[in-house]
TrEMBL record:
This is DNA ligase. Keywords: DNA damage, DNA repair, DNA replication, Ligase, Magnesium, Manganese, Metal-binding, NAD, Zinc. Residues 609-687 form the BRCT domain. Its EC number is 6.5.1.2. GO terms for biological process: DNA repair; DNA replication. GO terms for molecular function: DNA ligase (NAD+) activity; metal ion binding. The active site is at K122. One of its GO terms (cellular component) is cytosol. The keyword DNA damage applies. NAD(+) binds at D34, S35, E36, Y37, D38, S89, L90, E120, R143, E184, K302, K326. It catalyses: NAD(+) + (deoxyribonucleotide)n-3'-hydroxyl + 5'-phospho-(deoxyribonucleotide)m = (deoxyribonucleotide)n+m + AMP + beta-nicotinamide D-nucleotide. The gene is ligA. Gene3D superfamilies: 5' to 3' exonuclease, C-terminal subdomain, 6.20.10.30, BRCT domain, DNA ligase/mRNA capping enzyme, Helix hairpin bin, Nucleic acid-binding proteins. The keyword Zinc-finger does not apply.
Length: 687
């Protein structure tokens, strides 16, 4: 490679990686798979080693190379917090030889042959640092740029598995004054699938994998939205400890201490003496990891001795005493039969690969996302190519590259359509976005997806008006917008099949009943960008009618640069105003009203201090409640003037118990303290 070519490739890689870092760390919406990303980064690192003077020049020009810094996850809207001890990344490799070289380097550095390691799962979540002071949880912070991160305490408090207090170890050292513990927030596969199913029903784009969903959830500004999703946590690392004497001498003892304090710890770790035992442990982990509750993308090998860790030190980015060995993603080669274009609710065009079905990591894959026009062009993927498909942490498989040696001469570059494949309107690119959109409001797909979203369970919840039914109605030309749902005619519907009388009547009854659904359901159902269910509830409380919401002005949301309505910030305010600035969206509101839709506003928050309701009452919470987290329940109790206590005594007024309630329930029963469930509690709150 000539220096000139190297220089331009270096610049290109730096820019590409920076873009993927932004997508992955800040937006939790990566476009390429982790292994693809790792290959780009490896290529950059190799170039930097071969052409050190070019690397230095590039860094002088536009800052540190992505190979030398920790990916930055800080986002707007969170307070930043400075870690007492830096949070680092890990060097990683896919090669067993490099794992052995890691040992050899350390042996040389520390000048000893025999080294003991701990091998632990590499959890594929997002890094978090949790601080306990005198045993009490005080803060949770993301990695950020390693030096300071986002304070996500409110969101972390929705994690039921995260104890508010550490258990002192009986007969052990006292709890440290301050301890920063490192871990990973993740989401189970089951929860991921539950949420994606809801999204599918609401015609919203699916999340690619649990890690992205967990990362996106942690970065939600509204912790009530976060509470709707179940996050988990596992803690494995030591950040900072005061006094230092409270610390054990080894990484393995640290894992035991974490568990003894009552924190969720890694499911298994191995103590390995020397590189052969390390390799054996890594392979055993690979066999066992499917049974773990979290996704793993590798093994982390760490020196067991903490004093030796300190002696080995760190580079600018990662400790020298640890190495991640990443398991290669499973990959398959198959024929790309066609590229189809999907159009979403907001008109975004997504290219999809239609593949010759191929077996991959336990399932058959016949479709894979191609992300967007730019990605497609970058990889130069052509119809008729043999492509590599991968499924690493990703649930939705991705086409990662083309096997050029099998490219037929007749294969021509793919030309991204310049018009919407459904309605033929020329597509547009919104400034600052990669996505191309169909700008036609009346595009049949958009109509369909808007109506599907409106009728879904998460919104107005019209029984019988599912995805397939909406498709049919749009095809027949009976649905051209949301208001048409309320114009459907019985005689038309009866032509849909033979014995459809009963289902037609049920559907019409459900549609009729939905006219009086709660206001927030309509607000959510309009599909306004950024407005989720929780925000819709806040908006309903404040505006009390669709008309008032549609008339709202900037000052109603933001005054003196501050939010007027808690949880509704500037981004959402602007999205709302933009939505209703469009006369067609305004018309929806007028038409709905004319058709007899009359959403039910929420009960007025009484101006009387609600405190009186539960004043003087003490509650103890136990078990898992069906509809709210314990923190939410506690907040409700406190807002109504009640108190929440940790233990049951004769003075306890009520025990609010959910599923899997433990000893507190037994104690309440033995003391004769009334036990109530969530439904009874809600009735109590309603007076
Ligand atoms: N797909 C993309 O576009 C994209 C973009 C950026 C990064 N990435 C992925 O992220 C990786 C780089 O990110 P990174 O800097 O967070 O590094 P990393 O994920 O490779 O390793 C460091 C992190 O591992 C985590 N970890 C999990 N289990 C651990 C354990 N037992 N001990 C210690 N740490 C543990 C920690 O959070 C730590 O910060 C890349 O290799 C790539 O896979 C992907
Ligand atoms: Zn269109």
């Amino acid at each position: 490679m000539t220096p000139d070519a190297a220089q331009s490739r270096l610049a290109e890689l730096r820019a590409t990686i920076a873009r993927h870092d932004e997508l992955y760390y800040r937006r939790a919406e990566p476009e390429i798979s982790d292994s693809e990303y790792d290959r780009l980064k490896r290529e950059l690192a190799d170039l930097e080693t071969r052409f050190p003077e070019l690397a230095v020049a590039a860094s002088a020009l536009d800052g540190e190379s992505p190979t030398a810094r920790v990916g930055d996850d800080r986002t707007e809207g969170f307070a930043t917090y400075r870690h007492r001890q830096r949070m680092m990344s890990l060097d990683n490799t896919y090669s067993p030889d490099e794992l052995r070289e890691f040992h050899e380097r350390l042996a040389k550095l520390l000048d000893r042959e025999e080294l003991t390691y701990v091998v632990e799962p590499k959890i594929d979540g997002l890094a978090v640092s949790v601080t306990y002071e005198h045993g009490k949880l005080v803060r949770a912070v993301t990695r950020g740029n390693g030096i300071e991160g986002d304070d996500i305490t409110a969101n972390a408090l929705t994690i039921r598995a995260l104890p508010r207090k550490l258990h002192p170890v009986p007969g052990g050292a006292p709890l440290p004054d301050i301890v920063e513990i490192r871990g990973e927030i993740f989401m189970t596969l089951a929860e991921f699938e539950r949420i994606n199913k809801l999204r599918e029903e609401a015609a919203e784009p699916l999340y690619a994998n649990p890690r992205n969903l967990a990362a996106g959830t942690v970065k939600q500004l509204d912790s009530r939205e976060v509470a709707q999703r179940r996050l988990e946590i596992v803690l494995y690392g030591l950040g900072y400890c005061e006094p230092a004497s409270a610390l054990p001498a080894t990484q393995s003892a640290w894992h035991e201490l974490v568990r003894a304090w009552g924190l969720p710890a890694v499911e298994k770790y191995w103590i390995a003496r020397g590189p052969d035992e390390v390799w054996a442990a890594v392979q055993e982990l690979d066999r066992l990891r499917d049974a773990f509750s979290y996704a793993t993308d590798g093994a982390v090998v760490k020196l067991d001795s903490l004093p030796l860790q300190r002696e080995a030190g760190a580079t600018s980015k990662a400790p020298r005493w640890a190495m991640a060995y990443k398991f290669a993603a499973e990959r398959a080669e198959t024929l790309l039969r066609a590229i189809t274009i999907q159009v979403g609710r907001t008109g975004v065009l997504t290219p999809v690969a239609e593949l010759e079905p191929v077996h991959l990591s336990g399932s058959t894959v016949s479709r894979a996302t191609l992300h967007n026009r730019d990605e497609l062009a970058r990889k130069d993927i052509r119809v008729g190519d043999y492509v590599y498909v991968e499924k690493a942490g990703e649930i939705i498989p991705a086409v990662v590259a083309v096997n050029l040696s099998r490219r037929a001469p007749a294969c021509v570059p793919y030309v991204f359509p310049a018009a919407c494949p459904v309605c033929s309107t020329p597509v547009v690119q919104i400034e600052g976005e990669v996505a191309l959109r169909c700008p036609n409001y009346d595009c049949p797909v958009q109509i369909r997806r808007r109506a599907q979203h409106f009728a879904s369970k998460a919104c107005v919840d019209i029984d019988g008006l599912g995805i397939a039914m909406v498709d049919t109605l749009v095809e027949r030309g009976w649905l051209r917008g949301i208001p048409d749902i309320y114009r459907l005619r019985r005689e038309d519907l009866l032509t849909l099949g033979k014995s459809v009388e009963k289902s037609t009547d049920n559907l019409l009854a459900a549609i009729e009943a939905s006219k009086a659904a709660e206001l927030w359901r309509f607000i959510h159902g309009l599909g306004i960008t950024h407005v989720g269910a929780a925000s819709a509830k806040d908006l309903a409380q404040k505006f009390r009618s669709l008309e008032a919401l549609a008339d709202a002005r900037y000052e109603d949301f933001i005054a003196d640069k501050k939010s007027v309505i808690e949880g509704i910030g500037e981004t959402m305010a602007l999205a709302l105003i933009e939505h209703f600035n469009d006369p067609r969206n305004r018309a929806v509101i007028t038409e709905l009203a004319a058709l007899g839709v009359s959403p039910a506003p929420p009960p007025e928050k009484s101006t009387e201090p609600a405190s009186l309701l539960l004043a003087g009452k003490t509650f103890v919470l136990t078990g898992t409640l069906p509809g709210m987290t314990r923190d939410e329940a506690a907040a409700k109790i406190e807002a109504a003037g009640g108190k929440v206590s940790g233990s049951v005594s004769k003075k306890t007024s009520y025990v609010l118990a959910g599923a899997e309630a433990g000893s507190k329930l037994a104690k309440a029963e033995s003391l004769g303290v009334p036990v109530i469930d969530e439904a009874a509690f809600l009735r109590m709150l309603a007076g």
